[in-house]
């Protein structure tokens, strides 16, 4: 049952159940595995949890749940990994996106091509009146690299989020802090995202970043070397960025396989 690692040269082994000596991937092999296992044709999402998000609602009476009062936190991927109210991201680029949901979060149709009929239909319905739980949206969809996860993610600025999207675009290529803030909107208030450059000085050698132990509290920030913040290698970036800008299926649903789109629902990672 031991988990002791032994290293001989560049080869590491782990003493496992029954005394077996199992080879453990060298660091460079672990990095290859990470790349091979992550993407395919899909890039997962980064979401900002609202008070009415399903996982937040489901945890309202469970103080032991990690999602108890988790509204205002960013949440990554299909496993809903919490990232706190502040996340360091590298903004890599953007694309146009349109999406039609029903029942709150079940995907009916999606498009990344403004010239397509699917996109135009969603755009035409965006400002109309619809049944509760049905939504039509368009907006910029950003590609982020999240250093502490060593993963890429998309972040969709739809609805009221679009009003702040002009702050994101000039920061493409910059390491930034993405943070949630409480927006007072008259009769209604809600969580919204905003972004700021991580580095005030491009020549800075050190910088304060959110502590992963408690990323929501600025007083918990830690100082790190700028060159210690992980970035993807060029080959990995080029592959993911290419898939992001030129998805293999730019339209989903409403005449483009809508039955499959409806079955996928919100558990399917984003293209």
SSE layout and pairing:
Elements: E1 5-8, E2 11-15, E3 21-24, H1 27-38, E4 46-48, H2 54-58, E5 74-76, E6 81-84, E7 86-102, E8 106-111, H3 117-125, E9 135-146, E10 151-156, E11 175-185, E12 188-197, E13 206-209, E14 222-225, H4 234-245, E15 251-252, H5 258-264
Antiparallel strand pairs: 1-2, 2-3, 4-5, 5-6, 7-8, 7-9, 7-11, 8-15, 9-10, 11-12, 13-14
Shape: globular
| Mean pLDDT score | 81
Q: Specify Rg, calculated over alpha carbons.
A: 21 Å
CA-CA gap between termini: 41 Å
Q: How many separate structural domains?
A: 2
DSSP E strands, number: 15
How much of the sequence lies in strands comes to: 35-45%
Structural class: alpha+beta
Percent of residues in helices: 10-25%
Number of helices: 5
- Low-confidence segments: 1-9, 255-271
What is the H/E order? EEEHEHEEEEHEEEEEEHEH
Biggest sheet layout: 7 strands, antiparallel
What does this structure look like?
The chain has 2 domains: 35 residues, no CATH class; 229 residues, no CATH class. The chain has 5 helices and 15 strands. Strands 7, 8, 9, 10, 11, 12 and 15 form a 7-stranded antiparallel beta sheet that branches. The longest helix is centred in the N-terminal third of the chain and has 12 residues. The chain is globular. 27% of the residues are buried. The N terminus and C terminus are likely disordered.
